[in-house]
Amino acid sequence: MTKDPDRRRLTIDLVFYTGCLIFAVVNTAVAEFYGYRVWANFAVAGYGLAVVHTSWLMVAARHGRPVGALGSRWIGIGAIGLFAMILPLGMLVIRRLTGVDWLITPESWAAQPEVWVIERSAKLLLENGTPYVDVTALGRAVEVNDYTPYGPVMTVFGLPRALFGGGPVADALTDARWMFALAAVACVLLTLRLLKWPKIPVSAAQLALACPLTALTWAVAGPDLAIVGLLVLSFALATTGRAVLSGLVLALVVSAKLIVAPAIVVLGVLLITRRGPRALGGFAAALVVTTLVLHVPVYLVDPKAFVEHVFRFPMGIGMIKSPAASPLPGRLIASLGLVGTAVSFALLGIAAVVILVWLVRRPPATGSDALTRMAVGLVALILLTPATRYGYLVYPLVLLGARLVFLSGETRETAVPGKGTAPPAQQSATSS
């Protein structure tokens, strides 16, 4: 006798929400950062409500009781969205007005340093034509927060504060976290529209939205959510045949954060598999031209500062070391010394070769296939890079959630007579 699929899904929901609740409870007590603790206290309520609601659904299902309008599994997601994302973000934006940026006191930060740094980079861009300071000319010891380890596009999210900030109301409304959130939401809506509004599985929302890494990032920082949102949008554009636009959007993504650069290879293989060499050429041309337009002007203003901030510092070879040092395998291996660092990079290289072979031997034919390969590649990169943070795992989690949405749309397409996900060349061959 097979188990009731609805009860099985509810059991998985309960395990997921309970794990999230434990994570939040632990952070209320041990989190180093003020913002983390504020988030955790709100999140306990959101995840707690999700646990209670799911438990009630399980009891009702076991006894065959009607649940009415409250029977939707989306209610738990809604509680998390309210209590673990919207409310803590609003609270922290207001708390930030007390002025605790740039202090070496993590227990008082209402926003993580990346928020201040990106807002400062926009101000520097307007004043100097480059978001990067010459750290060799500061006249003092270099500090971590002197660096802007992002590409020029990330500066855009700080422009509202640089242009319109100044008073309490203006500062609250132009906090860069709102910009990150708006960009992420806009990318989700555009992606769903491109995919013709597929049904969103609850499991997709759990991975991409309700997971603590996503909710916490949304409240205390946010740039990674904007970037992964744009990344998913570039995959949707490529999947729906908009190769040039996909290349343009991906250039924006890579210009903001180099961690997503492997997407160039994945999308290139996807396009040549689905659409052929012409689509790949359009994608590559848009990618190259947009990248040059975005980077060359800033590079020419101060080439040395550009290289120091964008490349040397994130790679751990700048004037000071990156604080990205979560105890993941790559970091632990590299901590053994020069030999350990060499081994870490060797493992990373091996992983890259294995994934490349996977791409070539079994090229992705659908958007969900491509997202799977991208997620696996990023997991390898994050786990094996000597300087990394566990928070970057939000990228593969969101990509896996997006994969389920893409898969839902692809399944719907194949269910419609005369439609399918085969490349156009194959479709025309079979129809002739």
UniProtKB/TrEMBL annotation:
InterPro entries: GT87 (IPR018584). It is a multi-pass membrane protein. Keywords: Cell membrane, Membrane, Transferase, Transmembrane, Transmembrane helix. The keyword Transferase applies. The chain crosses the membrane at residues 12-36, 42-61, 73-94, 178-195, 207-237, 243-272, 279-300, 332-358. It is found in: Cell membrane. It comes from the Bacteria. Pfam families: GT87 (PF09594). The keyword Cell membrane applies. One of its GO terms (molecular function) is hexosyltransferase activity. One of its GO terms (cellular component) is plasma membrane. Belongs to the glycosyltransferase 87 family. This is DUF2029 domain-containing protein. It comes from Amycolatopsis thailandensis. The lineage of its organism: Bacteria, Bacillati, Actinomycetota, Actinomycetes, Pseudonocardiales.
